[in-house]
Structure formats: C-alpha cells, structure tokens
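User: Show me a protein chain along with its predicted structure.
Assistant: Here is one chain, sequence first, then structure tokens.
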Amino acid sequence: QVQLVESGGGLVQPGGSLRLSCAASGTIFSINVMGWYRQAPGKQRELVAQITNGWDTNYADSVKGRFTISSDNAKNTVYLQMSSLKPEDTAVYFCSRIQAGHQYWGQGSQVTVSS
C-alpha cells in the first residue's frame, strides 16, 4: 500500500504562482510514474503532468511552459511548480502514483485562480 499526502493548494491571483507537493509513504518501488491530475467542476479529471522514474517528464499542452513537475527521490516527494496561473487552471489537483500495476491517489488540493 502507498499513501500520498498533498500540500500547497490555495487561492492565487491570475499571473501568480503556487507549488504543490505530494509525499509518498508505505511500500515504495523505484520504478514508478508520479503525476498530477486536475478536475474542474463539471469536467472530467485530466492529466496535467507526470514524471517517470524520477526524470522523464510529460505535460498537457495547456500547461506547457508554465508548469514544472519535479521529484526528490530521497524524500519520495513530487512537486508541481505552477506559474503564470490562469482562471482556467482552477480545479482540484490530485497527486497520483503508479507502481507495480496499481494507481494510488492523494486526497486532492483546491487551487483557485481569481482576482
């Protein structure tokens, strides 16, 4: 079993920045995919960014150039640095970890971009 604990959401003005963190604990394997998804009201959950085995990154087109995913393998923690935030980035952001054929989810963090 894996537990994921998120932190760092909140309210920010358009153009501002936020950093989300997600710490994994439990049975941790080095071969893994960690990612951030988001779900806005009335919309499906979508992949925002993911990082495979701590180095190979992938981003949704809507956040390329604005968001950066990174990981600290020693701390089993993944980060999402979000910059130039837009109102359309408002959503609940979920951390995810895939390992050994299972996908685990964090509790979700509200990010609201509004003036």
